[in-house]
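Note to self: the last two entries modelled the partners one at a time, which told us nothing about the interface. This time every component goes in together.
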Amino acid sequence: MAIKKFINLNLKQRLSLKRTEAKKIFMTYLFVIVSFAILQGMSITGTLSSTMEGMLIPICAYSVMAVSLNLVVGISGELSLGHAGFMSVGAFTGTATAILLQNLIPLAPLRLAIAMMTGAFFAGVAGFLIGIPVLRLKGDYLAIVTLAFGEIIKSIFNNFYLGVDDYGLHASMLTDTTNLASGGRMIIQGPIGISRIAKISTFTAGFILLMIALIIVFNLVNSRFGRVFMAIRDDRIAAESIGLNITRFKMIAFVTSAAIAGAAGCLFAMNYSTIFANKFDFNTSILILVFVVLGGQGNMLGSIIAAAALTILPEKLREFADYRMLLYALILIMTMLISNNDGIKYFFQKINPFRKKQEAE
Amino acid sequence: MKRNKTKLVPVPSKAMIPDRDVARAPVLECINLGITLGGIKAVEDFNFTVGRTEIAGLIGPNGAGKTTVFNLLTKVYQPTTGTVLLNGQDTHGMNTVQVNKAGIARTFQNIRLFKNLSVIDNVKAAMNNEMKYNMLSAILRLRDYRREELAAHHRALKLLSIFDMQDMADLRAGSLPYGAQRRLEIVRALATNPSLLLLDEPAAGMNPSETAELMDSIIKVHEMFQIAIVLIEHDMSLVMNICEGICVLNFGHIIAKGTPEDIQSNPAVIEAYLGRKK
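The predicted structure of the combined assembly is written out below.
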């Protein structure tokens, strides 16, 4: 009897996610929407500096990258060091699609959307293929192998030639043997990459992509899938003992993350007039990992803020010229130390009235 | 709570199971089960039968191979010899996940919870295989998602209430007191709808009153779900009070089988625990 009464009384309240968690998710959406509104407003009224203006789309792209990597690193607990590889796959396939569709679909936002979906699809496929061998490994081994795969993807695009003429698509590896008919156009030219890209990425598109990425990740995490991802992260052996297919669920997380990264790569690429494979190297993978670690593993809002801050910071430090990267590194170290110091954390908790109220409840 | 005395009767294979289960096929039959680990025969000639609703005990001195038997049953190790029949089905070549789907759930000697998940999410994670909604339903929060999550939530709370843990549903599993963590592991195992529940030292580290409470809970679970339970335990009061059939292992071999009364007076068992009389 008592049990029944209890269930009836509390079901509604308990079914809604745990309150703090729901609050966190709400705050993330709110932060993204408000930031977009402010920045867009400033951009329209012309109060935004041109350097900031130029960084809006990269910030969106990096935020999406950080959110997607957080799904693998924070939620599934696997260290992946090749995330820029998926960004690269999305950038090249997406941009190539956009170029091919240039005359077919004159409407730029629609073309961009299709390009992003294509990029996401191919990055997802790449994630699946890489996942087959990689996800059988654990911990450090997995990290090293993803690193290698990121480099392999870079090398492939550095040696890949793709052109289009009246007879259709022509592709070749290592050397350019496409022999296009007159009037044809080279799309991907090995190490030179893709040039003469129509810049159709917009801040609004970036904002929408970030919102979609957040919806996908948050809703997935708060479903049976997310529960299983985290269960496997916490204890593999126990997860197997309750009948959870580890490889399958790791693959789901990995492919989802890769697909989102692909869309972000496409957004990123179409903000520039040229794009080449070396842009998505090991350093980029590490940079994205830094966003995730700095923002907090499993903390999406943190990832976004870290991505934005660390994209703006090097530009703001330009006035220090030669000492720029030194300062950048110092600030990074300081932030890591401070954000992991219990004493300082406690201090901020004490001065935060919002947090205090919550604890008292 | 102490259970009524059970009469053990033989089945065709000569193994003894409780008389109430004779009409139905045994839930578990191990035939000549054995494994060699690093050249040592950790378990050998293990013949063991568990009735459909039996509570069986597996006891023996430290290092006798009790947990190894559990690991063989759940395919953490693949046996080198012998057969395990689960509900009459040969489990040869199955892995841990498949064995769980076929009906074995277990707890661990050193607690293995999903520490960073909430208590209720630990239980719901174990219900994953019953939930069928796909990723699209999850991302778009479609009706499938809402219906199945609601049903899982109801069931998880009901399971938790068996152990009086419904109030802890939203706490982080890692933050629970030790006894509650042990109980949560049992709830999580039950959530997979097993026909055979393996408990590896459920009372380890508990004080006498906690052990008594645990005993009541195990009997309650047994009565509610009508499943077979095999438990490894060093606490003899628990074993002798709730187990119907007991199997004693020493150095990987079975040295005695029978009712608690038989075991208590068995000279081989006394010798294994206390040493030979001088």
